[in-house]
Amino acid sequence: MKIVHTIKDLQAALSPLRAQGESIGLVPTMGALHAGHASLVKRCVAENDVAVVSVFVNPTQFNDKNDLEKYPRTPADDSRLLEECGASFVFIPSVAEMYPEPDTRQFSFAPLDTVMEGKYRPGHFNGVCQIVSKLFDVVKPDRAYFGEKDFQQLAIIREMVRKMNFPLEIVGCPIVREMDGLALSSRNARLSATDRHRALKISQTLFESRDYAKTHTVEETCRFVEEAIANAPGLRLEYFELVDGNTLQPIADWKDTDYPVGCITVFCGEVRLIDNIKYNQE
Predict the structure, then answer these.
(1) Structure confidence by residue, pLDDT tens digits, 18-53
(2) One-character DSSP codes across 221-272
(3) Residue 136 needs a FRET pair 20 to 30 A away by CA distance; which of 197, 199, 200, 276 works?
(4) Residue 282 CA to its chain's centroid (Å)
(5) Pick from 174, 181, 187, 262: which is nearest to 226 by CA?
(6) Which long-range contacts does 118-123 make (Cβ < 8 Å, 24+ apart)?
(7) How many CB atoms lie within 10 A of CB 176?
(8) Which of 5, 37, 124, 216 is an active site residue?
(9) What single DSSP character describes residue 181?
(10) pLDDT (tens digit, 9 = 90+) per residue, 55-85?
(11) What residues does 240 pair with on adjacent strands?
């Protein structure tokens, strides 16, 4: 595994491999890696000749400066994990390397980016699209891998690839959870032991709602989740939306879609956690 810090060095290393016909996979990350990231990297390694992993805490996607400053950074641990997973290259650029000048590009993929996270974190997805499009231009991957925990992000990146005609395949990978059900997240490292236990209520509620939904309406299911989180100590619901998994638009009836997904964001103490679950109405 080779660690690279500049675009020039990464492209110099990848160009001859691409010329030899080797396939290149990319896993964009913000570091603080865990088993969820490892699953993406291992799949990338299995499906491509060359696996590139970027580790970059992208400032343009944070609409809260404190959140950016508190985001966990563990470069030594990240490198060890990536080597164990079989990554070929780890790209760890500086902010100046990725943004030698301000990125003024504006991305709009309405209505995908105007609901849920787009509503509560204005500018977030614009920053995501800025950095992901830059990485696609730098690496020119055949495939890029993203986790389904960031469900809305995955849908927006798919749309960006379609609209901008990037010649690559976006591969969505399932949520990885702890044994007790908590969705893996770099932000989990910021949870106190008490908050870590309280956070379990998020996934537990989603799992319970999936069974509840089989005999209840969309409105009743939403209320079930909202009330469960409202009654849980230490948790504050920002939103829970039942949406069409393709359009991300809220549904009013189970018949409105054949792909219902529940997306949730909850503050556990000061830490903002997201999760989602797919509903099967058969």
Answers:
(1) 999 999 999 999 999 999 999 999 999 999 999 999
(2) HHHHHHHHHHTSTTEEEEEEEEEETTT--B-SSGGG-SSEEEEEEEEETTEE
(3) 276
(4) 28
(5) 262
(6) 118/152, 119/239, 120/238, 120/239, 120/265, 121/63, 122/63, 123/60, 123/61, 123/63
(7) 18
(8) 37
(9) S
(10) 999 999 998 888 999 899 999 999 999 999 9
(11) 264
Quickly count helices (H) and strands (E) in the chain: 10, 9
Q: Would residue 34 show up in a list of annotated catalytic residues for this protein?
A: no
Tokens of 170: 């976006």
Contact of 158 with 129, CB cutoff 8 Å: no
Type of residue at 23: S
Residue 123, classed as helix, strand or coil, is: coil
Cα-based distances in Å from 211 to 45, 74, 117, 151: 36, 38, 26, 21
Domains and CATH numbers, the chain: 2-173 (3.40.50.620), 186-276 (3.30.1300.10)
The alpha helices in 48-150, defined as continuous H runs, are 65-70, 75-85, 95-98, 117-120, 124-139
